[in-house]
Amino acid sequence: MRIGGIRLLTGIAALALVVGFSPPTQAKTHTARAPEVGARIAYIVDSSGTVHFGKRETRRVPVASLVKVMTAYVVLREGRLGDVVTITKADVRHAADNGATSAALRTGEKLTVSDLLYGLMLPSGADAANALARTYGPGRTAFITKMNATARKLGLADTLYTNADGLPAPRQGGHSTAIDQAKLAQIALEDPTFRAVVSTKTHKVAKSALHRAHTWTNTNKLLGSSDGVIGVKTGFTSKAGFCLLFAADRNGRRVIGVLLGDQDSRRFTTAGRLLDFADEQIAATEP
Question: Is 201 a catalytic site residue?
Fold first, then answer.
């Protein structure tokens, strides 16, 4: 995997190393103007290393359920898709007691890791996050240690995890930056299972002797509304605001974007406009 530095548009400071991107180039404005971005933090970069937009992209902030991207990434390396996890009362209560989004899991259900990854990423289930972290730590504390070790290994120097779901306790779920989140998405999307999960709009689990039926719908409204979108994750807490980590394949390049501290519906329309802007910039530089 190549490592290259990134240089942003004029007026934006030099950035940390980016894992997985080719040596960067400076985006040039052609016929298009960058869209208005109301999010507190924003960043968009493509797989050539060209940064198309940056706004406070080095600021360390809580990223809410974007944390679950790392949870899924670690699970995919620690477990097997066919492993069966038994849901405990603690898993269910973790989501309920914290007022968190859930995959509506029930105590005693036995589900595969494959299905739980959908429950984790589509409805953003804190119950699924707890079950996976508990299993593959083993224990939540050990799992968080693995998350932070993985962050260091991947060069996410400005990222700290304190839980597996991004909930406010403890310490707002840790912190990250838009740049680090883009790096992580670029790497995670190289995994075909991760890519398949986050690009799925609806996942159904048929009732069996081991579990009841589940239907999980992706909270990412950008899927299907903008060309080439392949995920990645939504998030919200009162401290982090509405967040969106998104990606699309455009003009032969993978474009990764991050919006932090935005409004709910606005994040999706802004993301679509940023993707179109990057697309036009890419097309204008092609021979």
Answer: no
